[in-house]
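Task: sequence design from structure.
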């Protein structure tokens, strides 16, 4: 297998994971599991962003690295709107609150907004990969 074929397989796998995480987020929200929905929504975006950067032969060791690269590369290139990058920051913070916060009360409307934000983020990155 060539390096490009290997990279393409990883990109496809990361996008599959992004879609699975989105599905999981919707299922969790439907069950009333807001914390899990927040977690899965963030990871859907994380996997989609990972796919884009792997396609560019870029890898990151930390979540903050990929978040920074989204702002510094994908926004200036027009792949994502600035507000989508800011939303990615918010999803990361929400995920930390959901995973580690002791007293986190998440209104249903906020969960639904998070799911829509994640869906748009993943769709934008899938479109960018499709254009490549």
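Answer:
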């Amino acid at each position: 297998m060539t390096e490009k074929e290997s990279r393409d397989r990883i990109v496809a796998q990361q996008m599959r994971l992004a879609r699975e995480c989105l599905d999981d987020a919707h299922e969790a929200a439907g069950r009333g599991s807001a914390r899990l929905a927040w977690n899965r929504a963030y990871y859907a975006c994380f996997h989609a962003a990972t796919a884009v950067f792997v396609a560019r032969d870029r890898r990151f060791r930390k979540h903050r690295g990929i978040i920074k690269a989204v702002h510094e590369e994908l926004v200036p290139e027009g792949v994502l709107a600035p507000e989508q990058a800011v939303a990615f920051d918010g999803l990361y913070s929400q995920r930390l609150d959901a995973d580690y916060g002791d007293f986190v009360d998440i209104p249903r409307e906020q969960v639904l907004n998070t799911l829509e934000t994640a869906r748009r983020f993943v769709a934008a990155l899938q479109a960018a990969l499709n254009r490549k």
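Residues 3-131 form a domain with the Four Helix Bundle (Hemerythrin (Met), subunit A) fold (CATH 1.20.120.330).
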